[in-house]
Design brief:
With 180 residues, the chain is α+β, with helices and mostly antiparallel strands. It has one domain. β2 and β3 form a beta hairpin. The relative contact order is 0.16.
């Protein structure tokens, strides 16, 4: 596994838990079972290290609060706005992730306002990804749902199997009660 401070080859490596320049997503037990597009997100450095607003005053590095990613959304580092301060897009990316993580490390977690989605949106706003400063929790949630890729079959099953199973049980019970 690559050192936290050293960039790796830039390749996504789910076995090593490395997702360079990606937004990563994992299900939240019970909540995702009921609403399969709602989950927990983090953002990765250029070396692929996950930064995850895991709770009040705590941004974890290298893992996620609810388990490993089941989906990832690779972003294009060339769409990072560099201010011309001598660093390239990787440096601007990492500086934005670090700054957002430092800021959220001083914040209280709130389900509707300051949460994992707002942490990632803040990082994207700081790096002016796609020249935007209007990244929001809702936009991020929709784009991860639409553009995110599952981490193999296990990622797909961890994401969808609980929802499908729960829906099947509810429909079976409803049909059984309706028949009587």
């Amino acid at each position: 596994m690559a050192d936290h401070d050293e960039p790796d080859s830039g390749k996504i490596d789910p076995d090593a838990g490395r997702y360079p320049h990606c937004v990563v997503w994992t299900p939240i037990p019970v909540l995702t079972w009921l609403f399969p597009f709602v989950g927990h997100v983090g953002i990765c450095t250029s070396a692929g290290v996950i930064h995850d607003f895991a709770g009040s005053y705590f941004v974890s590095e290298g893992n996620m609060a609810f388990g490993g990613p089941t989906k990832y959304w690779p972003l294009d580092v060339s769409k990072v706005h560099t201010s011309g301060g001598g660093g390239g897009p990787d440096e601007a990316w990492d500086a934005a992730v670090r700054q957002a993580s430092e800021e959220y490390g001083r914040r209280t977690h709130s389900l509707c306002r300051d949460n994992c989605h707002s942490h990632v949106a803040t990082a994207l706003n700081l790096m002016r990804y796609e020249r935007r400063t209007s990244w929001s929790m809702v936009r991020l949630c929709l784009l991860v749902a639409i553009r995110g890729k599952h981490v193999g079959w296990t990622g797909f099953l961890k994401t969808w199997l609980p929802f499908v199973t729960l829906t099947g049980v509810v429909l079976t019970v409803a049909l059984a009660l309706n028949v009587q």
